């Protein structure tokens, strides 16, 4: 088992503004670790994480693939998250290229069919729609979880770009919960973008609070 | 960190700014050089994604003239070492990137480029 990235340089004050790695983060790490051999053998050149937050997930991917094997692009709308991602990259000796932006906007023109791995642990918690948009505008920690109707307000903005960004054998990892209606996401990705997906069945887990089911979800 | 490998992938995304919006021009930059592990396989795999003219121009804006005008056909070790340095070891820590078309300014602070747009600029 690969160790979880070292985040000992981040402080409680950082987590006032940046999402602290939690169960959903670790589920994504587990999914990447499970696919580690396939990911390595595909020789990915560009990885892109949307909403990298603490930087934990991209650092973990870097520990699987190696720091010089891949370009690790990270975006976050939250300036504190950008700083934390950079610091985590340094701490874990994975050079993360961090951009402050919403989703992948300034990269879309140049990354046509070029990204081998896309990672997205989106704001998936169902909230009022305005709350999700307001949280993005405030660019603070609420933006890491407030997801609007069905928790899909932000994810739905990004899904139409996936097929264009992915390289021919690229993979997209998305964290989703039952309220996001995973089978509907799969159906839309198949019908609108011809992307097949395979939810990792072993990944169903109980969330720490309530009866929410977390699930990670992979599109091949 | 804004390294030239990343700069080569960034285009202006202001609403309506869809042509001549790449590459962004550097201004008032502070540059730091940090050594990194040389990986010829990575460079060979990545080179097809590079817009060569944009890379040569951006390197010159940062004072590095080591790259040839035309991308060489043979990727020998000397060339790959030069490419490695230009793409991966030059970090722009402070400065501005300016769209050649609409002149939008994207500031870089502590190595982080701010590519966020105001509401009315979003396409």
Automatic annotation (TrEMBL), chain A:
Chief place where the protein resides: nucleus
Cellular compartments annotated: Nucleus
Superkingdom of this protein's organism: Eukaryota
Organism the protein comes from: Favolaschia claudopus
Xref: PANTHER family: METHYLTRANSFERASE N6AMT1 (PTHR45875:SF1)
PROSITE patterns: N6_MTASE
Alphabetized UniProt keyword annotations: Methyltransferase, Nucleus, S-adenosyl-L-methionine, Transferase
CDD domains referenced in this protein's UniProt entry, alphabetically: AdoMet_MTases
Residue span, Methyltransferase small domain: 37-125
InterPro entries, per database record: DNA_methylase_N6_adenine_CS, Euk-Arch_PrmC-MTase, PrmC-related, SAM-dependent_MTases_sf, Small_mtfrase_dom
Cellular compartments per GO CC: eRF1 methyltransferase complex; nucleus
Gene Ontology MF terms: nucleic acid binding; protein methyltransferase activity; S-adenosylmethionine-dependent methyltransferase activity
Keyword Ribonucleoprotein: no
A biological process from GO: methylation
The keyword Transferase is annotated on this UniProt entry: yes
Family statement drawn from the similarity comment of this UniProt entry: Belongs to the eukaryotic/archaeal PrmC-related family.
Record's protein name: ERF1 methyltransferase catalytic subunit mtq2
UniProtKB/TrEMBL annotation, chain B:
Top-level lineage group: Eukaryota
Any Pfam family the entry gives: Trm112p
GO molecular function, one term: protein heterodimerization activity
GO biological process entries: rRNA (guanine-N7)-methylation; tRNA methylation
PANTHER family, sorted: MULTIFUNCTIONAL METHYLTRANSFERASE SUBUNIT TRM112-LIKE PROTEIN, UPF0315 PROTEIN-RELATED
Family recorded in the similarity comment: Belongs to the TRM112 family.
Subunit structure: Interacts with TRM9.
Protein name: Trm112p-domain-containing protein
Lineage: Eukaryota, Fungi, Dikarya, Basidiomycota, Agaricomycotina
């Amino acid at each position: 088992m690969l160790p979880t990235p070292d985040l000992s340089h981040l402080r409680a004050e950082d987590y006032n503004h940046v999402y602290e790695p939690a169960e959903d983060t670790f589920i994504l790490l587990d999914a990447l670790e499970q696919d580690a051999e396939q990911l390595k053998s595909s020789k990915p050149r560009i990885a892109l994480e949307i909403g990298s937050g603490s930087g934990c997930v991209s650092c973990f991917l870097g520990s699987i693939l190696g720091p010089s094997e891949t370009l690790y692009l990270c975006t976050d709308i939250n300036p504190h998250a950008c700083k934390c991602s950079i610091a985590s990259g340094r701490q874990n000796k994975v050079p993360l290229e961090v951009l402050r932006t919403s989703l992948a906007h300034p990269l879309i023109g140049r990354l046509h069919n070029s990204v081998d791995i896309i990672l997205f642990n989106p704001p998936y918690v169902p909230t009022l729609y305005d709350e999700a948009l307001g949280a993005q505008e405030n660019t603070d920690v609420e933006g890491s979880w407030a997801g609007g109707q069905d928790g899909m307000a932000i994810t739905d903005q990004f899904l139409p770009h996936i097929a264009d960004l992915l390289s021919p054998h690229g993979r997209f990892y998305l964290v989703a919960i039952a309220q996001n209606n995973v089978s509907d996401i799969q159906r839309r990705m198949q019908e609108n973008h011809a992307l097949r997906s395979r939810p990792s069945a072993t990944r169903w887990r109980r969330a720490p609070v309530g009866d929410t089911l977390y699930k990670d979800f992979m599109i091949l | 960190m804004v390294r030239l490998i990343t700069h080569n992938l960034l285009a202006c995304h202001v609403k309506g700014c869809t042509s001549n919006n790449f590459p962004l021009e550097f201004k008032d930059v502070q540059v730091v050089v940090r050594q990194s592990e040389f990986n010829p396989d990575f460079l060979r795999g990545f080179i097809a994604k590079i817009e060569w003219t944009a890379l040569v121009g951006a390197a010159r804006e940062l004072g590095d003239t080591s790259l040839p005008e035309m991308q060489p056909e043979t990727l020998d070790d000397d060339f790959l070492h030069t490419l490695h340095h230009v793409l991966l070891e030059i970090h722009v820590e402070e400065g501005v990137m300016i769209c050649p078309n609409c002149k939008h300014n994207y500031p870089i602070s502590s190595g982080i480029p701010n590519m966020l747009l105001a509401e009315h600029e979003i396409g």
